[in-house]
Amino acid sequence: MSSRSQRIVSSERRRSGVAKQAQEQELASRFNDRSAQSPDESSRDEEEEDDDDDDNNNEANSSEDLDQTVKKVIRYVLACDYQRLTIKRSGITEKVIGKQRGNFKKVFKEAQQLLRDRFGLEMVELPARQKVTLREKKAAKKSKGNSTSSTSYILKTTLPYEYRKPEIIPLSTDWSTSDEYAYIGLYTTIICLISLSADKQMANHQLDRYLKRLNLDRNTGLGTTSELLARMKKENYLQETKTNDKDGETSEWRVGPRGFVEVDRKAITRFVQNMYGMNAPEDILHRLQRSLGADKENGQETPA
């Protein structure tokens, strides 16, 4: 190798050595700057990252907890409805929500939406029981000022009427299902009779007379007449008020909270029209609306 070539190689080596040394100095300077950062700033950056992770985890856990609670509420209300038990807010709070009582409104709203979307149902608040006797009216004034609402609910379908016609519902060969249909028909008939009576009430002897005409004065096919009426009272379809006078103890029957919601004015109108069929008077609809609309004058409009 010539001396000229040696000088060139030597010069290149020096040049690369200087560049490498400069890079090492720059890296060392950066490391020192980072090391010189205050412990508070370093820990703050780490804490912010940890906080972000915790927030994400908390949001995920909270969302999962809400979903699980909503599903539990759905199961609870469906079980109550199957047994015709009133769905009470206190029951939802104590038996389902538990420690998340502060989230009742949010849970209730989510459950309502899920019921409508998946089951075609919704929770409807029941009206308060009618206060008839003087004692009941005084007690109502002392408690909640004669409130017309309650904190109890039942499930009611949200399906349009055209999807609830008997023609599209297949007949069941299950005797228990047949008994259920018979029970629905019986309480619907009795509720219609009471709703279309004067003052929306019916004396016990009047109800007996109607049941006798229907051949239901002793046995209904679902047990005795007294057993059937007792069941309707228990399930809040009917409300019985007993009073004592010179003739002894008498009873008056009214529609109960569940009866008001399940068999509303529209249901009563359709039921009566179907019973008349083609022989219905021309003014039947007007007469029904006039009879059922009397509730507005009394300030006790039945839920539609």
From TrEMBL:
Residues 43-66 have a biased composition (Acidic residues). SMART domains: MAGE (SM01373). GO terms for cellular component: nucleus. The lineage of its organism: Eukaryota, Fungi, Dikarya, Ascomycota, Pezizomycotina. Pfam families: MAGE (PF01454). Residues 1-66 are annotated as: Disordered. This is Putative mage family protein. It comes from the Eukaryota. Residues 66-277 form the MAGE domain. InterPro entries: MAGE, MAGE_WH1, MAGE_WH2, MHD_dom. One of its GO terms (biological process) is DNA repair. PANTHER family: MELANOMA-ASSOCIATED ANTIGEN MAGE ANTIGEN (PTHR11736), NSE3 HOMOLOG, SMC5-SMC6 COMPLEX COMPONENT (PTHR11736:SF14).
